[in-house]
């Protein structure tokens, strides 16, 4: 009997797997191929012949090494704002045919824009006779036309959903030839050359077919669409079904629905419901059924992403069709200026996904890869992802449902720099078509909570987008809608349910840094939730170790060029230090910008640009992780979560630099966006010195902390009189018995710093007197503030480079932080790290920098501003040297004894004490003339843009992607 059972089970398993393989024929593998650069295939009836070349699908032409070599005449899809690359003599070697290094974005192995043909022979089994047969192409770039044998089936164009063709009438049992023509040119439907759905700035304008490629066979009576609309209040889901009959006979039957949870520790299952239906021949019908849930109904959110699987079965006398889909019992609503998820206020802590896939050049279609990406985002305390002008494949929604992330996919368009909305162009209808395809294919996923039409449009925006929002509000209430994600100068769309806007973001660090102010006044005019558009954009120096990761279809030729240029400038050995120092300033800036939003009552969320680097638009290294979603080494997810999490302690510092005759008075707040209020929460604080010794501590009374921003907890007062030497202190605030903790460094200096008696000659002019002092072996301190000529064109702010200097044609700031020789005894009385920190603000902000172009190779200043990597000039703020028989320190920051800035005065004191000591022994000798030249002659090499307008004024073939209104 045991052997019989094993045999019986084996027969059942074989029958089941055979049935499955009959239902789907995978078309992955080898395909015949022919490129069609001159567009001759249709008139030449290539579909009736056979191709000699081969490629593997899923994949792109570039992956298969098909297409054109990269040249200076490559017709890229994307705007180029800085055309100086094509003309700059210094970059001439990177324009040589065998050494092309495009600086604007990553470089693919091959490039191709045009039509290409893919062909495969298929054998249809006899068991498929009478079944409905669908050709499924999960993601194609962009337009497809399909032939079976010599018969054309049709054409489709979608950047967001699978291209599906009904081949029932053409595929009889036996052998057939399927030919697919893929065209990735920007034609009448122009979403914009910079749209992340097509542009070379990010994924690339690839030609190919990716994801699932298959023939699917099923019942000719089937579910054409199933959409699930949760109703949490009434513990039910309204299920809307569209049933289609493609036979030539009238049919009737029964529908059965049920749902069961599948990914949570607690299991819940609905009872089955059923309904009868009847359809005339070649007819369709819509049905609505209420699926009730019991007391054990599970809801989905970021904390508990419980999911259900709906099983829908359709039975007729001669056919049966079953469809399963994933959904969650989740609602999102707007309450004034707040988002409510399942009735609970939620703050959106997000980043952008710009379709960065440097190994393939196209988006991942596997759930595992999207889970990896989303888990990285959540490990940094985020709960939200915006997809800038593109929509990811279905795998992303499946993964986000599992991980618990709120998604904002967008219509695949940046209708600017060419196309415009609201003027009757093809893009107007296409955005409706594409967003409808998104709703149909991905609308059941709980993570799909927000929708925008695209990014930063031009044209008749307000009228068009008001109608767009009204259309979607009335059509589908499972998510909330805005017009497009825009900067602060775009017009407001009155009908938008929430705003994704710039203009209320950033750090006002032209003034002294503090954490008291917030954005309340700026958001007061918005009655709906305000989500900050593309916050941050703080640059770091390139991580050249990343170059070796580019083992796929792309090469980081941009970063290779920057690395070689740094070598040519004699600073290759400082690359890692530049990365780490600029990285720490970047983290500081993101921390302060995010905390300012978290302490602003009524602020609804932010979307960073970004957590990860953006490899295009001139190379925008704005992320704390790279384009592979991997860390760079200067900040951990745990550190980032301290200031970007569901709960964040906050401190309101009036300033961060104090004299010791003052008292630190700081308000303590808490931001909370949790699964429930924090009841009987106790907030503690402590102040430590740089050795970890606790100088003061305290606790506030227990309280209930509701979901809100900037909830006041109490105040701390810490007199600083006991701090008698320059010190870096740290305030740490935590919520007891939780993992929520945050901290801030602040600095305390003696009110009257010690200035030892010294024979140092202080001067603001490098004159003959200074020269005489040096020649006789004396010491000189040169305060050269305001006197720099060689370097006056370099604008240094305390904040780093924004986005990148190429994209904005060298718009300041040009410096991305300071590299400080912190181990030097010059800083013995000025506590500092190796990187910019807030105590450097009043020293460095708006100070002049010196270009040290004639200084010896390997010369390293005590304080070295880090230049934009497009120019890689060796810069100095403070340096020391031997000159003749003497020694000198030169500062282009204003450092003096009578200055009314505590940090500047303290640094000057430390340098003076250093110069008075026997430790003052500079390693490098310079001539008096080399030093003086910085204050007499301009830089030998000046930046020249070669263009007065943007984008593309001088780019070869610059009008290739433009559409006139």
Features:
single chain, 965 residues, alpha+beta, six-stranded parallel β-sheet, globular, disordered C terminus, Glyco_hydro_2_N, beta-galactosidase, hydrolase, glycosidase
Structure description:
The strands form 14 sheets. The protein has a 6-stranded antiparallel β-sheet, with no helix packed on it. A 6-stranded parallel β-sheet has the order 25-24-23-31-29-28, covered by helices on one side. Strands 1, 4, 7, 10 and 12 form a 5-stranded antiparallel β-sheet that branches. Helix 2 (367-379) packs across helix 3 (394-403). The N and C termini lie far apart (79 Å). It is 16% helix and 30% strand. The model is unreliable at 1-21 and 951-965 (pLDDT under 50). The protein has 965 residues and is of the alpha+beta class. Residues 26-215 form the Glycosyl hydrolases family 2 sugar binding domain. It comes from Paradesertivirga mongoliensis. It holds the Pfam family Glyco_hydro_2_C. Residues 221-330 form the Glycoside hydrolase family 2 immunoglobulin-like beta-sandwich domain. Belongs to the glycosyl hydrolase 2 family.
Q: Mind sketching the topology for me?
A:
Blueprint: H1 2-23, E1 24-26, E2 29-36, E3 53-57, E4 59-60, E5 107-108, E6 115-124, E7 132-141, E8 143-148, E9 151-157, E10 163-166, E11 174-183, E12 208-218, E13 221-231, E14 236-245, E15 251-261, E16 273-279, E17 283-292, E18 308-316, E19 320-327, E20 332-335, E21 338-341, E22 344-346, E23 348-353, H2 367-379, E24 384-387, H3 394-403, E25 406-408, H4 426-442, E26 450-451, H5 461-475, E27 480-481, E28 499-501, H6 520-523, E29 530-536, E30 554-555, H7 557-568, H8 575-598, E31 605-609, H9 637-641, E32 647-652, E33 657-659, E34 663-672, E35 678-681, E36 683-688, E37 694-699, E38 703-705, E39 708-719, E40 727-735, E41 741-749, E42 761-763, H10 768-775, E43 779-783, E44 815-820, H11 841-844, E45 850-851, E46 863-867, E47 875-876, E48 878-883, E49 886-891, H12 902-916, H13 928-933
Parallel strand pairs: 23-24, 23-31, 24-25, 26-27, 28-29, 29-31, 33-41, 42-43, 43-49
Antiparallel strand pairs: 1-12, 2-3, 2-6, 4-12, 5-30, 6-11, 7-10, 7-12, 8-9, 8-11, 13-14, 14-17, 15-16, 15-18, 18-19, 20-21, 21-22, 32-34, 34-39, 35-38, 36-37, 36-40, 40-41, 44-46, 45-47, 48-49
Helix pairs in contact: 2-3
């Amino acid at each position: 009997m045991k052997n019989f059972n094993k045999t019986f089970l084996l027969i059942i398993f074989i029958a089941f797997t055979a049935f499955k393989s009959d239902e789907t024929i995978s078309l992955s593998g080898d395909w015949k191929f022919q490129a069609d650069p001159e567009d001759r295939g249709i008139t030449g009836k290539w579909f009736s012949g056979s191709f000699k070349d081969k490629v593997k699908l899923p994949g792109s032409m570039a992956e298969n090494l098909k297409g054109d070599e990269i040249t200076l005449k490559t017709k890229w899809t994307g705007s180029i704002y800085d055309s100086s690359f094509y003309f700059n003599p210094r970059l001439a070697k990177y324009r040589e045919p065998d050494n092309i290094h495009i600086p604007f974005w990553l470089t693919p192995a091959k490039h191709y824009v045009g039509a290409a043909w893919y062909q495969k022979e298929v054998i249809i089994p006899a068991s498929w006779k009478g079944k409905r047969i669908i050709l499924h192409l999960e993601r194609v770039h962009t337009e497809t036309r399909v032939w079976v044998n010599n018969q054309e089936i049709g054409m489709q164009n979608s950047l967001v959903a699978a291209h599906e063709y009904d081949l029932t009438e053409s595929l009889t049992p036996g052998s057939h030839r399927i030919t697919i023509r893929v065209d990735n040119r920007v034609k009448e439907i122009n979403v914009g050359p910079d749209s992340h759905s097509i542009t070379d700035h990010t994924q690339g304008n690839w030609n190919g077919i990716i994801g699932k490629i298959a023939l699917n066979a099923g019942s000719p009576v089937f579910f054409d669409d199933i959409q699930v609309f949760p109703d949490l209040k009434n513990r039910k889901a309204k299920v809307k079904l569209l049933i289609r009959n493609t036979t030539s006979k009238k049919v009737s039957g029964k529908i059965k629905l049920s749902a069961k949870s599948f990914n949570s520790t607690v299991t819940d299952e609905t009872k089955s419901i059923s309904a009868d239906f009847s359809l005339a021949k070649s007819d369709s019908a819509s049905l609505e059924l209420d699926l009730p849930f019991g007391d054990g109904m599970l809801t989905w959110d970021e904390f508990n992403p419980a999911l259900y699987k709906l099983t829908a079965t359709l039975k007729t006398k001669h056919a049966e069709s079953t469809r399963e889909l994933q959904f969650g019992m989740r609602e999102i609503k707007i309450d004034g200026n707040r988002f409510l998820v399942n009735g609970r206020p939620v703050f959106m802590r997000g980043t952008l996904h710009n379709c960065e896939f440097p190994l393939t050049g196209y988006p991942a279609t596997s759930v595992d890869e999207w889970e990896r990406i989303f888990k990285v985002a959540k490990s940094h305390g985020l709960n939200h992802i915006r997809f800038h002008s593109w929509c990811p494949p279905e795998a992303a929604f499946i993964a986000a449902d599992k991980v618990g992330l709120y998604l904002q996919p967008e219509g695949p368009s940046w209708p600017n720099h060419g196309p415009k909305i609201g003027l009757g162009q093809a893009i107007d209808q296409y955005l409706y078509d594409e967003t409808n395809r998104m709703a149909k294919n991905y609308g059941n996923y709980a993570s799909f909570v927000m929708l925008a039409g695209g990014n930063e449009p031009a044209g008749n925006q307000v009228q068009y987008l008001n109608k767009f929002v009204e259309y979607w509000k009335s059509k589908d209430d499972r998510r909330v809608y805005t017009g497009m994600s825009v900067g602060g100068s775009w017009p407001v769309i009155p009908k938008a349910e929430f705003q994704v806007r710039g203009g209320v973001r950033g750090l006002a660090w032209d003034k002294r840094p503090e954490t008291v102010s917030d954005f309340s006044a700026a958001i007061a005019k918005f009655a709906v939730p305000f989500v900050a558009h593309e916050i941050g954009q703080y640059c770091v120096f390139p991580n050249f170790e990343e170059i070796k990761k580019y083992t796929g279809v792309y090469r980081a030729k941009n970063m290779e060029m920057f690395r070689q240029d740094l070598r040519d400038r004699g600073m290759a050995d400082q690359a890692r230090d530049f990365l780490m120092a600029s990285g720490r300033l970047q983290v500081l800036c993101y921390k302060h910008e995010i905390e300012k939003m978290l302490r602003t009552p009524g602020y609804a969320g932010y979307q960073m640009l970004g957590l990860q680097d953006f490899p295009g638009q001139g190379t925008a290294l704005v992320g704390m992780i790279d384009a592979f979603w991997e860390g760079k080494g200067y900040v951990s997810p745990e550190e980032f979560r301290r200031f970007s999490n569901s709960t964040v302690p906050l401190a309101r510092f009036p300033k961060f630099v104090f004299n010791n005759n003052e008292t630190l008075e700081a308000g303590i707040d808490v931001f909370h966006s949790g699964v429930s209020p924090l009841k009987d929460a106790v907030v503690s604080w402590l102040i430590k010195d740089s050795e970890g010794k606790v100088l003061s501590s305290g606790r506030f009374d227990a309280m209930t902390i509701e979901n809100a921003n900037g909830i006041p907890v109490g105040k701390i007062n810490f007199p600083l009189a006991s701090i008698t030497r320059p010190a870096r202190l740290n305030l740490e605030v935590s919520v007891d018995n939780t993992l929520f903790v945050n901290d801030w460094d602040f600095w305390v200096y003696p009110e009257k710093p010690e200035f030892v008696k010294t024979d140092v000659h202080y001067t603001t002019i490098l004159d003959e007197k200074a020269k005489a002092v040096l020649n006789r072996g004396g010491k000189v301190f040169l305060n050269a503030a305001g006197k720099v000529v060689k370097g006056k064109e370099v604008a240094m702010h305390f904040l780093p480079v924004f986005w990148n200097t190429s994209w904005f044609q060298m718009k300041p700031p040009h410096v991305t932080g300071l590299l400080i020789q912190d181990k030097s005894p010059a800083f013995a009385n000025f506590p500092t790290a190796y990187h910019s920190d807030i105590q450097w603000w009043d020293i460095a902000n708006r100070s002049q920098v010196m270009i040290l172009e004639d200084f010896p190779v390997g010369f390293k200043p005590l304080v070295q501003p880090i230049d934009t990597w497009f120019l890689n000039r060796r810069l100095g703020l403070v340096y020391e040297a031997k000159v003749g028989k003497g020694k000198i320190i030169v500062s282009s920051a204003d450092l003096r004894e009578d200055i009314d800035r505590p940090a500047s005065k303290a640094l000057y004191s430390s340098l003076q004490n250093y110069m008075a000591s026997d430790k003052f022994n500079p390693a490098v000798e310079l001539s008096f003339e080399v030093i003086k030249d910085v204050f007499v002659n301009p830089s030998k090499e000046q930046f020249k843009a070669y263009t007065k307008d943007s984008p593309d004024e001088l780019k070869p073939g610059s009008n290739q992607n433009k559409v006139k209104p």
